[in-house]
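Hypothesis: this fold can be encoded by more than one sequence.
Test: take the structure tokens below, design a sequence, compare later.
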């Protein structure tokens, strides 16, 4: 099924995943806000990444560095001189385009003639303190990576590490992109999840391969369809100014293949540049060689918002179903992996009823107190049970727990599975274990 992205955007707005930024003022181009369910989804994506890349490994530690850094950082890193895209402007409609992203040499909008390209630096500028001057001009970071490089020596000493080891960071980045679009695909403010993995020179090719595989596995473990993913090595003329080799992971979006992650071999480019500009040694002592060595860097870099978009697009399904009254109807569901589903489980009394409510509330309390569910459990008793199932399907809730009149006698509830719609009767005392098994992060994690 080819998904119309506007349909997904409409679901996201209706159900509270993603809203246009500043909507009551007419919106701001390509800026988006995450609503109650979007905030949960995004948080689950970041938590899952942090768990897999930092907490479950011995060789990666975390960092949370500042967005605004010393101006010298961007000078030394090459971003002031080289973090630019070629901009062309239409002589007729005045629209601006990235020259390397358009096919023809005329305006894609109106066919007008285009100006000569000029290089446009993507970093946002602002000023530190009350006076606007050249001296206090600073940039909003366009990648989180530089915060890691300038802290290399601090982390090395404080955490008593030696390469191979990595430093991970999740945080906002800002790029004054010439063109944006594809819903949340390309925006000017976005979030990144990055690792700078420091390795002894000579081991870089092997670690590069490992991190491409590991990154791909992160997506497939969270349920993304493998056939819609591919690894694409960069051509030499596409490489960033710091990169020796880069491979992107691309996902097949409704409009075509798009980059969702990149793994670059940055070699010793950044540490050497900062060592030279700051005068600080950014190396480690290699016991085998008996000398100080500047490590090479392998950088798996993920966009949080692109990961969220990938999971949403990949999970969207429309199925033929039958309504409670026996009529054919369309069932829309998000087949999100339980680890990232914004609502993990919903407790639904068969109807809003004085006899059912206390028991349904008791069941909710038992689930919450048991800590069997790591995330949001919703209670919903509005509208018919059929409509509530449809709503939970549409927001991707993996399981619903239904409390009916039999529950009052047999102390058992019905668990309904989102994907198969099968129902299973379970005694309340076994519910926490049952939920724990059904919502396990990975099949192999099930008890
Ligand atoms: N430190 C490496 C780096 O910045 P990049 O390929 O420019 O590499 C890494 O960015 C990831 O960040 C991309 O794969 C993408 O997922 C995300 N990203 C980059 N620009 C973005 C934008 N304008 N909007 C949303 N996500 C973006």
């Amino acid at each position: 099924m080819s998904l119309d992205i506007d349909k997904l955007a409409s679901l996201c707005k209706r159900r509270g995943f993603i809203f246009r930024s500043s909507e009551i003022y007419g919106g701001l181009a390509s800026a988006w806000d995450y609503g109650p369910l979007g905030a949960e989804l995004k948080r689950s994506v970041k938590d899952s990444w942090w768990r897999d890349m930092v907490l479950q490994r011995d060789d990666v530690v975390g960092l949370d560095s500042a967005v605004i850094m010393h101006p010298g950082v961007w000078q030394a890193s090459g971003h002031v001189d080289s973090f630019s895209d070629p901009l062309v402007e239409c002589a007729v409609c005045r629209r601006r385009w990235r020259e390397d992203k358009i096919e023809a040499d005329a305006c894609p909008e109106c066919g007008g003639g285009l100006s000569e390209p000029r290089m446009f630096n993507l970093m946002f500028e602002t000023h530190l303190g009350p006076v606007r001057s050249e001296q206090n001009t600073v940039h909003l970071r366009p990648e989180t990576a530089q915060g890691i490089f300038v802290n290399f020596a601090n982390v090395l000493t404080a955490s008593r590490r030696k390469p191979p080891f990595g430093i991970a960071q999740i945080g906002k980045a800002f790029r004054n992109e010439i063109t944006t679009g594809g819903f949340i695909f390309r925006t000017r403010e976005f979030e990144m999840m990055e690792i700078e993995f420091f390795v002894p020179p000579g081991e870089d090719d092997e670690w590069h391969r490992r991190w491409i595989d590991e990154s791909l596995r992160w997506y497939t473990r969270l349920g993304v369809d493998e056939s819609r993913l591919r690894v694409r090595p960069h051509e030499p003329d596409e490489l960033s100014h710091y990169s020796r080799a880069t491979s992107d992971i691309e996902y097949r979006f409704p409009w075509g293949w798009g980059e969702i992650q990149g793994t670059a071999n940055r070699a010793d480019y950044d540490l050497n540049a900062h060592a030279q500009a700051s005068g600080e040694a950014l190396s480690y002592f290699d016991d085998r060689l008996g000398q100080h060595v500047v490590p090479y860097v392998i950088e798996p870099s993920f966009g949080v918002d692109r990961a969220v978009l990938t999971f949403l697009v990949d999970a969207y399904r429309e199925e033929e179903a039958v309504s409670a009254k026996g009529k054919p109807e369309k069932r829309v569901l998000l087949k999100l992996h339980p680890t990232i589903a914004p609502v993990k489980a919903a407790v639904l009394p068969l109807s809003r009823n004085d006899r059912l409510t206390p028991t349904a509330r008791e069941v909710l309390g038992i689930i919450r107190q048991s800590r069997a569910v790591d995330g949001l459990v919703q209670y919903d008793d509005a509208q018919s049970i059929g409509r509530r199932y449809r709503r939970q399907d549409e927001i991707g809730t993996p399981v619903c727990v239904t409390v009916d009149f039999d529950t009052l006698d047999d102390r058992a509830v019905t668990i309904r599975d989102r994907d198969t719609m099968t129902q299973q009767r379970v005694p309340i005392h076994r519910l926490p274990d049952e939920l724990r098994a059904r919502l396990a992060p990975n099949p192999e994690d099930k008890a």
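The CA atoms of residues 192 and 202 lie 28 Å apart. The domain at 341-445 is CATH 3.40.50.800 (Rossmann fold).
Hypothesis status: open.
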